[in-house]
Design a protein that fits this description.
rod-shaped; 12 helices; two-stranded antiparallel sheet; homopentamer
Chain lengths: 323, 323, 323, 323, 323
């Protein structure tokens, strides 16, 4: 589906709606550029765009199927950048990844989006509000989209950070929870999210530090900032992985400590109950000659002794922190 | 065994069956190229081909024994690419690796296949259906085979992914299973599979980004796509390894939690039973003066007290989640 | 907030207070340089400084928000160095990171500080006491601040080292403590602190070994020492991480050993108490013909035997180190 | 001890026995080359050889003491390659490493062997059977020896693989074995063996891909094959290390599962026995008014109830898989 | 403290004692060189030497405080090498690190030693016995000291190796020891020792493979040997680290196995004792009609049955390896 197809001249949108072909001809004539946004295009839709803008044949499969890694590729007449926008679904503690393919050429930028990670309308509107920057050409659009996507990693990071904090709390709380499953799946999401951010480092570094075809030199400087932001995101993701590995190990210790405590307490109570049982057993023996049995105060004395022994044991266990 | 020996001219198969020698002469005369496919050739079979196409002496051992790592090697007159096709045997959860050696020279491509991972007839048929691509020469065949083999890694990945999912489920299910053995052998298979994919990255990167002798420049561009695909496969394999390591650790926690729970429950029941035993022991003592024993309601009162104590303990253990 | 804005000529402070603009004009006229220190400036405060010194537009966001990694960046007319000063709050065992941004240009140095990790007044005073060094220009100030910040990592290291020592002691002490939580959070702080030191290595290496715009050659040599110091800090931080990982594992063993000892002792006592109970049970049977029961010395003999059996068990358990 | 000292001309051995000096003079006169093999030479023996062939002074210590890492070093007039041949002693599950130093110069090759890992007579005989290859000069001998040593790593790999398989079986068998010690020492051997193979990679890569003084260009190509073989060996060694680490962890789970099962079974039996004890205790109380005691069928009824309760518990525990 | 200050001419010591200044003048006049050794000099002592030999100002702090990493630095007129000699204190299982700073310039070598790891008199004496080598100038002294220090790492390695062996023995012995603490602190020492050896690799590699100012070319070749030695030391240190990590894990398994065995044995004995208690309880019931009680042989029969049941249980537990 073609979401939007606009012509920009000197940083301002040319009024009217265009087909891709008409937009291209208009832009050629006016020294302007075209910005087309597509969402999960069908083969035919994309094929039409491809032919108009003379994109590489191999691009068709990529643009329709959407199972790419983040990458930057140079073709003869255009440059392809693949991005993975991310969204954090807090209710399921799951990171959802989408895919954005950007074809940048002389006088045009084609943006293909896959998945439900939110549209780029906001980015377009924000950019249209800065005509002096938009006047730098299609690479200004490229920067705006990359910046928008990388900025959108922040809520994901915050969601993950919050979950890591909750998991830590659960591990070290005195409640008898076992957050192993949650830790594991959280780690899995972090590894998943890393697939969006880590492979993007090289392409962004390239955009920020070396001249790339079709990328305006004035825009290049702005990519340094985005690259820096991505570096920070990536560092934090690595930190989460490291922390979750440690938390998994700490959890093993905590769980085994708590369970052992339970067992120890039960065993200690059994040990206390065993003592009066033993004493009672002795005075339950049927010997004919057992002088204590005849004594009037034998029974209360034994009961008292039992209570004493149990209390002594209880205090002893308490002191040793066994109860 | 020679599986197929064909001459291709301008992208189309020249009718007729040829011996390797005849095919070579035919191709030389017609500006065509030869594509020979062998399956586990005997020393003599391969020696004949080797002499006709003037392959390097060292190649004989490699082509017959088949214990190579994936690699790309340049000889004087030809290039050798070694691939490891893979197949997933779901019933045994085992990854089977085969081996394909491709000798690419000026006007010929010799493909030697080992193992039972499926023939290349499909790749040949698909390629013959695209004569315009096949017309680019033997390196088009090279691309077709590499693409076919790397595409075939996908079902292996899916098989492994499914097993990883099952293993995760088993670890975190409430059933008392111990999937340690399965996790371990799965990890072993992942490490095994990595031996096919990881060492292929460098050769494919070379084919995709630098000019290689006997490889058509138009074909080179197509290798970028295959390389990209392999990168994704490799990334996922690394992810599996990482996950299985974490799962093994999570499993230790889960197993120990479950077993401890069992022990705790048994001990708690013993602790409950110990209390009436203790009380009964007391009233089983043979003291002459024990006033409760004469009371008519002594017995039911004690029975009631026992029931009460046991119930209280039961509720207490329940609340503490010990039962 | 502008903390201080001074003009330095030939290593000595020019008397009087200046606005940024006045300072710049003064310094231009006198062949001197300006050193401005800001603390958490508002957008307007910084914007004014930025315009006066012609800093890059992108710098505004960075200077106000302060969520940068340590880095060195070259702009057209200036160089930006980002530092992360650190402070150790011993009471909470937490490493607090601040942020310092230094813009170095021809004839000026602008220092923006964020966070509460302590001001740079000491660094300014110390530097003003060395006019011959200060006479080397703004890069001498750069060196002084970097040196000051890296020197300030030492108390953090000492704080962490002390905590690591305490944690080791707790792990291997005979007291029944469980320092898992403390180990984990300490490791977390070490990882946090590493975010300040590790990314600074490359910028400092660059300052020490290659010519940087606006950095005096005589000053460059002094950066080698700071770089070396940072290398040592970083090595030690890595060492802490390694140690804490091992301590976490050792702690699991120690905790499980200690808990098992408790369980073993309780069980051993129960086992000792079970023996007289069993014997008493036997002589509590109601058989008509039990010759021992008639014997006058039956009762004391059995009591003696019980005491003997218990003592024997006790000695046996003691020898086996079970008690 | 000088094992053999021979002169080779045009690929064939010149008849007769020579002293090192005579051999060198003979070879210089005839345009032939000398191949000397020494086994653990004394200082005097080696010193004589050294002087004749003008080897570097530092070589003496190396050649006599034999505690070198695999390496390739260029001196003024010769090249030194150090190899570590390996042998697997299956009875003790130990990898024994020897040491071979090869001095290669213009017209001579001196081979010094240390340790008991098997002589090089087989390599010499095999090479003498290929005069056309031997005619390529002393570097052909170098290749033959390196090839022989690397080929000899195969039985070591097979021995280790077999042990890894046995260890895996032991870990996952239902027998109550504890293979921890064996796993650990196996891992130790793998690390030990790696000291022979890993540092050899760089020297072999150098021999295979760059021109080395005194190494014939035609021979260089043959080193590619040996390098490839070594790469495979090294990859497998790394795989073993990885597997043994996982096996050690899996073993911890398995061992704790098995031991817990034992404990659970014993506890379950105790729990079953506690029930009739409790019931018996109740009817052992001495209350005057206990109506059941007068009943004729009281005793068998209680016995039956006991049996019933025990059976019910047994079935319950069985169902829960606690027995 | 100035330990020794000597002038060497043509490899021989010039008789007499000199102050640093006199020695320098003497050496300048005679084309000789000065070798000064200092041990923990005061600021004034070193300042005097520094001025005489025109060393860099920054060197003063380094030479007095001594908290440097091993490194090689080039100043204008001199080269600085920092070494960390090591000593193993077996009684405390501690590696003690010292520090040696060597300033090498044209015609002089200044050696500053810190710590108690043994003086360099032996190195001086050994070198004076080789006048032909000493004649190569101050870099010969540099080599001698570096060689001496690296040679001195050997006893440390041997001490650590012995401790690792003892720890392994303790882990796998059948005695109930818990060597966790010892393993941990040993690992700590290994990490500590690595701080002396690992950062020295680069400087030594530089000295061995590239020309360094003030280092004689003939001496350079000798550094290859020292570098090689250090490589071996470093490899072994890494091996220790790896082994100790595995030992720590194996120890967890061994400790938990041993403790579980103890618990299992105690529980098994309790289980055996519970059976006669249960039987005795049954015959202790007060039912009026219990035919066995009247039988003359009831008592011995029951006793026999008890013995039989216990024996059967004992044999059963023995067979299952529970006792």
């Amino acid at each position: 589906m073609i979401v939007d197809c606009a012509v920009y001249k000197e940083g301002r949108r040319v009024p009217g709606t265009f087909t891709p072909g008409a937009a291209l001809r208009k832009s050629r004539a006016d020294d302007a550029f075209v910005w087309i946004g597509l969402h999960e295009p069908t083969r035919d839709e994309f094929e039409e765009v491809r032919r108009e803008f003379d994109l590489h044949e191999l691009a068709v499969e990529d643009a329709i199927k959407a199972h790419q890694r983040p990458k930057l590729e140079s073709y003869d007449d255009s440059v392809l950048l693949v991005l993975k926008p991310a969204r954090y679904v807090d209710s399921e503690e799951v990171v959802e990844l989408g895919e954005i393919l950007i074809f940048l050429g002389s006088g045009f930028i084609v943006v293909v989006r896959h998945g439900d990670t939110g549209g780029l309308q906001d980015a377009r509107r924000a950019l249209e509000a800065r005509p002096e920057f938009l006047a730098l050409g299609p690479s200004a659009v490229l920067h705006a989209i990359v910046d928008y996507v990388v900025d959108d990693y922040r809520p994901v990071m915050e969601g993950l950070e919050q979950d890591v904090d909750q998991v830590e709390e659960a591990v070290f709380s005195s409640e008898r929870t076992n957050p192993t499953e949650r830790i594991y799946y959280l780690k899995r999401e972090v590894i998943e999210f890393r697939r969006a951010t880590a492979p993007l480092l090289n392409p962004l570094n390239h955009l920020a530090s070396r001249t790339t075809p079709h990328v305006n030199e004035d825009v290049q400087e702005y990519f340094r900032d985005v690259y820096d932001h991505l570096l920070r995101v990536n560092e934090q993701v690595e930190g989460f992985r490291d922390l979750l590995t440690s938390v998994l190990e700490a959890n093993l210790t905590q769980v085994s400590v708590r369970q052992n405590e339970d067992m120890r307490k039960i065993s200690a109570w059994v040990a206390i109950a065993v003592v009066p049982t033993m004493i009672a057993g002795i005075y339950g023996m049927n010997f004919e000659y057992m002088p204590e049995l005849q004594s009037t105060f034998g029974y209360p004395a034994v009961l008292g002794f039992m209570a004493l022994a149990c209390s002594a044991l209880y205090i002893f266990f308490r002191r040793r922190d066994w109860l």
